[in-house]
Each structure stands twice: as structure tokens, then as C-alpha cells.
Write a structure and sequence with these properties.
- The chain is mostly helical.
- The protein has three domains: 94 residues, Potassium Channel Kv1.1, Chain A, CATH 3.30.710.10; 91 residues, no CATH class; 44 residues, no CATH class.
- Helix content is 62%, strand content 6%.
- The protein has twelve helices and three strands, in the order αββααβααααααααα.
- Strands 2-1-3 form a three-stranded mixed sheet.
- Helix 6 runs antiparallel to helix 7.
- It starts with 11 loop residues before the first helix and ends in an 11-residue tail after the last helix.
């Protein structure tokens, strides 16, 4: 069985010049070595090696099995490659869901497709920012999954932003999430950074609340009663007692 939807918008003569067949889940996908090599040094090395091995001999189209890769992921990647590298396509490659971005990021990392990996990182970072803005605790589970993926694929910018979102959303339910404490999920180093950042964020929040109370008190008329003075002082002492000593340094404000 053969599929080639990524070639539908291209001239038929160009499609007929395909010189490699990728095989995913038993389906044959005709493609062009130059297009794949432009997006992936991994494929470039394979094609150059094959060319050297077969120099001076006649051979048919190169066949390249992709064991373990899903057909839908390979089709999406091929669509991205052709839209990125040809002048015939007017459509820019675009990711549509976090699920697709996660799948494609793993594929891009496996085959050293750095441009696609950056696209996935940018897309997921934007989604993480949206979670932070919405304060939706249900979406924090997704952020944990993105953090594990980012560490696996070396997406440092996404790791940093996911850590910030988790720190600012820290609560008891987050600590009890098995994916956060699972050693096969995010690294211990990442978890430690999140804990330190969460501590710093909570301390900073308490300090801002304390300052807000003091400012509100200062806005009262100067003839406030002694009872009012005592109440404000007791509240400030209580807030100070809640703070955890040893405020860590960092940029998580």
C-alpha cells in the first residue's frame, strides 16, 4: 500500500522523481532524498552511505524502513519537510495540537530534525504560557508531561518555562501527582529546581501581601486606635512566622 498526500500539491513530474521509499506500519511513502537530507542530517548520512556503497552499480529506489514510528507522525513530518523546502507550496508548516507537537518532537529528536524540534518547542512553550495565564490546575498535568518530553529531547527553553509554571502553581495536589515524583518522568534536578522556585514564589507572595496590608494601614487616617495598631502588628508577625527560612536565589518572581 502506498500513500503520498504530501506530494499532492506538487508537480507530477517532481513527484515521479522520488528516489527513496520510507516504510511506516507497512505503508510505503515515496519521497526525495534531497528533501529529507535538507531537514535531517540523520537521513543525509544514510543516503550518502548508501550512495557510496552502490557507486557504479544500477539500483532501484532506496527503501528505508522506520520501525517503531507511527504512520500519522511520518506523514505529518513529510508534509512539514516538503512545505519547508519547496517553492511550490504556499502553505507554511503549522502545528495544530499539543499532542501532535509532542509526537513530532520525539520524531524530530530521534532523526535530528532541529528546525522541526524548535517549532515544537515554540508551540509547547506558548501553550505553557497559556496554562500559566489561565491558572488552570487541571492543565498542570500536561505541563508535567511537556517537562519530561523537553528534558528527553533537550528543549531547554521549554524546560525552564514549564518549571516556572509548576512553581507558580504549586499546591498539595501537584505534589501528590505521581508523574511529578516518578523517577522515570522529570529528573530529580528538575524537581529540586521546581521546589526551590515554588518556595521562593510563596515567600515573595507573602512579602507582597504583607506590604499590601502595611500600605492599606498607612492609608488610614493618623488617628487610628491602639487596637487597630495591635491588630496590624499581630497579622504581620503571623505572616513572618509562615515564611520558610533560607530564601533561595533565582529569577522566579
Amino acid at each position: 500500500m502506498t500513500k503520498r498526500p504530501y506530494l499532492d500539491d506538487l508537480p507530477e513530474q517532481f513527484a515521479q522523481l522520488a528516489d527513496v521509499t520510507l516504510i511506516a506500519e507497512g505503508v510505503e511513502l515515496p519521497a526525495h532524498q534531497a528533501i529529507l537530507a535538507a531537514n535531517s542530517p540523520f537521513f543525509g548520512d544514510i543516503f550518502l552511505s548508501s550512495s557510496e556503497d552502490n557507486k557504479g552499480t544500477s539500483r532501484g529506489r532506496l527503501r528505508c524502513p522506520l520501525p517503531g514510528d507511527k504512520l500519522d507522525d511520518v506523514l505529518t513530518v513529510l508534509r512539514y519537510c516538503y512545505q519547508s523546502c519547496t517553492l511550490f507550496s504556499s502553505n507554511k508548516p503549522r502545528l495544530e495540537s499539543a499532542k501532535d507537537a509532542c509526537s513530532l518532537a520525539r520524531f524530530a529528536h530521534k532523526y535530528d530534525m532541529q528546525a522541526l524540534l524548535r517549532e515544537c518547542e515554540t508551540f509547547l512553550t506558548t501553550r505553557a504560557k497559556a496554562v500559566e495565564a489561565s491558572h488552570d490546575t487541571l492543565d498542570i498535568t500536561s505541563v508535567i508531561e511537556w517537562t519530561a518530553l523537553a528534558e528527553e529531547c533537550g528543549m531547554t527553553r521549554l524546560v525552564a518555562h514549564c518549571e516556572l509554571v509548576m512553581a507558580k502553581s504549586w499546591d498539595t495536589s501537584l505534589w501528590q501527582d505521581n508523574r511529578l515524583t516518578d523517577t522515570d518522568s522529570i529528573s530529580r534536578a528538575c524537581l529540586l529546581r521546581v521546589l526551590r522556585a515554588a518556595q521562593h514564589h510563596m515567600i515573595a507572595s507573602e512579602q507582597r501581601m504583607q506590604q499590601m496590608v502595611v500600605n492599606r494601614y498607612n492609608s488610614f487616617h493618623t488617628g487610628a486606635s491602639p487596637t487597630c495598631h495591635a491588630g496590624i502588628n499581630d497579622l504581620i508577625k503571623w505572616q513572618q512566622a509562615q515564611q520558610v527560612p533560607g530564601q533561595p536565589s533565582g529569577l522566579y518572581d
